[in-house]
Amino acid sequence: MFIAFLWQLMRTSILQLLKNLRSHSKEKEITDADILIWANNKVKESGKTSHIESFKVHQTRFLSYLSKLSYCIMRLALSTYLDSLGQEHS
User: Fold this and answer.
1) CA separation for the pair 4, 46 (Å, rounded)
2) How far apart are CA 25 and CA 20, in angstroms?
């Protein structure tokens, strides 16, 4: 139950951030479907086969998926950070 509540807080926060970013452009508002497409693409790019069609999946399956997505994002962030360190020392 706590994880579901935490996810909803994070989801609401992300949607609000994306809505604010989109307000500066003429593009459409970000939807849950857009987030799912992005997340599924990130997981697929990492070589994993997991995907979800909605946020209303069983909690155990969702936690497994969320851990894979978090790993993908962490790897990308770390790679970007390490690249920036390499450029600073060049």
Assistant:
1) 25
2) 10
Q: Which of 39, 42, 40 is nearest to 11 (CA)?
A: 39
Give dist(CA 76, CA 61) in Å, integer.
23
**Which residue from 72, 64, 11, 76 is spatially nearest to 44, judged by alpha carbons?**
72
Tokens read off for 55? 């946020």
pTM of the model: 0.58
Digit-coded pLDDT (tens) for 9-58: 777 777 777 777 666 556 677 778 878 888 888 888 888 888 888 878 77
Give the separation between CA 51 and CA 33, rounded to whole angstroms: 13
Written as six digits, the tokens of 3 are: 């994880």
Query: Could you tell me the residue ranges of all domains in the chain?
Result: 2-88
